[in-house]
Amino acid sequence: TTLLTTIIFGLKFWILVLAQMATLSNRSFLQIECLLFDFILRVCLNMDQWLNACVATERTITMIKGARFRKKKSKRIAKIVIIILLIFIISTSIYDPLHRRLIDEENEDDKRLWCITTYSSSLRIFNSVIHTFHFLGPFIINLTSSIMLVTKRSRQKSNLRSNQNYKEVLFKQIRQHKHLFTAPVVLVILAIPRLIISFVSKCMKSTNDAWLFLIGYFISFIPPMLTFVIFILPSKF
């Protein structure tokens, strides 16, 4: 999903630039881009967050079960979970392209095309709830899995070393594996602008405050690009 997100984001960025420069003006193509690209990006971003949560959960289960952990069974369950997640995320996002459309903006200098969403008040509330769920759900699972993982490992080491009490081992494990706690926090902080944008039902003026929205929108794409750096490289479990 990380690679697909990066590719789609890159395409969307250059299409937006070319469209605003009036170099790309095919309305049919821009209509398709408006309907599909944001939807695909939304699915990929949510999928990436939930997959990170699944990895954290599997890592915790591996630690708890130890030698009783069955790798083949885990792979089979992982495939089923991925399919269920994909269906769930698509089904909770499918309303978005159905309420997107292109609008023309004309001023004294030039003419632009913008892709906008038009939600009813009830759908706007539903959209905010779904965004919040996909935002907090993976974060809570990541954090809970990290806490369970460190406490379980500390308990195991404390039982093996009678000269150290549990609290000493626990604090040592927290220091050694602090990346397990900092990574979810960093990702959730970077994803906050996208959540805020989902709550802001404002028609922005392209000449005034577009950059504020665009910067927040672009920042929200940093987490999937940092997945390998944050979750894989520092891992010592």
Structure, described:
- It is a single chain.
- This protein is mostly helical and 237 residues long.
- The protein has a single domain, classed as Rhopdopsin 7-helix transmembrane proteins (Up-down Bundle).
- It is built from ten helices and two strands, in the order H-H-H-H-E-E-H-H-H-H-H-H.
- A two-stranded antiparallel ribbon has the order 1-2.
Biggest sheet record? 2 strands, antiparallel
Q: Give start-end ranges of low-pLDDT stretches.
A: none
Whole-number mean pLDDT: 79
Level of helix content?
Answer: over 70%
Shape: elongated
CATH class value: Mainly Alpha
Strand-residue fraction?
5-15%
Structural class assignment = mainly alpha
**Record field, number of beta strands:** 2
Tags for this model:
Rhopdopsin 7-helix transmembrane proteins; mainly alpha; single chain; 2 strands
Summarize the structure.
The protein is mainly α. The chain has helices spanning 2-20, 27-65, 71-91, 95-98, 121-160, 166-176, 179-199, 210-219, 222-225, 227-232, and strands spanning 100-106, 111-117. A hairpin with a 4-residue loop joins strand 1 and strand 2.
Task: Give the topology, please.
Elements: H1 2-20, H2 27-65, H3 71-91, H4 95-98, E1 100-106, E2 111-117, H5 121-160, H6 166-176, H7 179-199, H8 210-219, H9 222-225, H10 227-232
Helix pairs in contact: 1-2, 2-3, 2-5, 5-6, 5-7, 7-8
